[in-house]
Amino acid sequence: MMKQRFKEDFDEVLRRIVDSDSLALSRAADGEASVLKNITVGNKDGWLFKRDKNLVFRADLRKSMLCTDDNYLYGLSCTCCDRENHEFLLGTVQAPLGNLTFSNIWVNANFAAFNERFLTTLRVSGKPIVLCTNQKARLGDLEREIPLKDFLPIPGNCVKYWEKRKEMILAWIDLKASLARNTIFLFAAGPLSEILIHEMWKVNPRNTYLDIGSTLDPILFHRESRGYHKPGHVFADRVCEW
Questions:
Q1: Taking a C-beta distance cutoff of 8 angstroms, is the pair 212, 121 a contact?
Q2: Global pTM exceeds 0.85
């Protein structure tokens, strides 16, 4: 059960990665909240949601926020970083409090522990690992840390990609999820991660599906894309509060 305590929840998710054969962690913050509010939004990773235009994407993202299954966790914006969207997202999800944690669970003051323990935890689990992220990712450095069974590339703007290729993508992830057994899927595909996690969970909940966001950008893209990546940055020291 999540306790909405920053470091304790981090430890609990790592424990479940090893011990559980059924786990999902979907994370929503300001970008996802803007999509749900139908506000034009994009970010430095290249995705763009346009108000009143990408409504298929918005609808599917909204549906992905409504799961109430026991092992399906949602990370939401915290009050110390974004109180407005904390309250909005808290009113959007239907999961019980015990399934709710921080969207920042991997980052800010937890990032040092993430760097030290996350990839080690994946190795210790002994489970097959699949990565889903931008097709430009450089996998070599990551594969020196963990064995990758498969790579699911996401090209270009994830919003446009979903709306133009939705049926093909659904068939593709049905194939991957249905044939997997106690596999860890890592997602770093912007707000599309939340949709993919939900769709794959519906196909087969006997896997682990984790939105890891930008945490591995220094390894996969050789760039420190967020403030928390830099020791001494204000976010790197922030212990988030529910």
A1: no
A2: yes
Instruction: Count Cα atoms within 13 angstroms, Cβ side, for 89.
Output: 30
Annotated domain spans of the chain:
6-237
| Predicted confidence (pLDDT) per residue in 148-203, tens digit | 999 999 988 999 999 999 999 999 999 999 999 999 999 999 999 999 999 999 99
Tokens of 118: 């996350």
Are 208 and 17 a contacting pair, CB within 8 Å?
A: yes
Q: What are phi and psi of 150, to 5 degrees?
A: -155, 160
DSSP 8-state assignment for residue 6:
H
Q: Kindly report the backbone phi and psi dihedral angles of residue 186, in degrees, each rounded to the nearest multiple of 5, phi listed first.
A: -105, 130
DSSP letters spanning 42-79? E-TTS-EE-TTT-HHHHHHHHHHT----TTEEEEE--H
